[in-house]
């Protein structure tokens, strides 16, 4: 079975194509990343440019994989997203055990949360069940009781931004198989099996936004989107050093560090200033420009968690950083200083094929989208893409293995 994931971000558009191998491992068989110019803070602002970027990324990934993509799982980001936790209840007839239908009734009641009319529900993710007041139940089916309760994390997106993203994808000749919130996709892409029993704060620091997610016992318990990302760091560099944005981005990528002590004190950078003149800046000074914005992002993420779940240091066991902006040296060390918690950089793992291409924090969401796609029901014999000329196994057994693996992350 072949699945395609499409990560449409502020600074880049990434297409990843994966295939479930006979041993249950996800093989990455196609990838392409191209610059994105039609989005701002994760939202489409220029339909034509966004469509063209998707088309280019898709075409290049198809050439690598040797297939023609028809459907994609698409990541959704941006400040228009809203995550809330709702409560559902279902009464069980005396003498009966809890059935799947009872669980569905409880979840449906939780989904009745009064969202704004301009919002569209993307996910309803059960967190924890209670039977007659007994907490901590992951699967109540078959249990005896008269009162079933469930906490469900709901994630909704603005109808307008979602419709524009769909138009851009369809304009590139694709069908949307599913929309997936970026935070969930990133978690699927980088969380480790050992983190299943932890409470993990995941920050996906992208170009225009930062996705905040808390996974509790492997399930998404909190989501938020901060309107700040790597491009804001670049803007700070450009403004303070009086250099063009493109030059600031180049300097940041090549020499940027989150902490001045990580920069070479002997290194003096030559920069191209506005007006065509050359300037010089010590490497530690560049880090002093970068650090405040990253601190602000980390502070706002902490604030989001504190308000939703309680004090971050008490509720969270580990912090995982991912996204293209975490490629900068010392971001993990800065987070460790600010949170006083274990911190690691999250990279996609447990895949084969083009591992050297996707083994980067920048590919977390795209790989996670492919993994999410593996859990979707098969709609047609062709699934999500046209078959290879030499058609392989149907892959139903392998899909079951992937579903079992991913079940701990939902």
UniProtKB/TrEMBL annotation:
SMART domains: FtsA
GO biological process: FtsZ-dependent cytokinesis
Alphabetical keyword list: Cell cycle, Cell division, Cell membrane, Membrane
Topology in the lipid bilayer: Peripheral membrane protein
Chief subcellular location: membrane
Residue ranges annotated for the SHS2 domain, each copy included: 3-190
Top-rank taxon: Bacteria
GO cellular component, one term: cell division site
Location in the cell: Cell membrane
SUBUNIT field: Self-interacts. Interacts with FtsZ.
NCBIfam families on file: ftsA
Function summary: Cell division protein that is involved in the assembly of the Z ring. May serve as a membrane anchor for the Z ring.
Family from the record: Belongs to the FtsA/MreB family.
Protein's name according to its UniProt entry: Cell division protein FtsA
Organism: Thermus oshimai JL-2
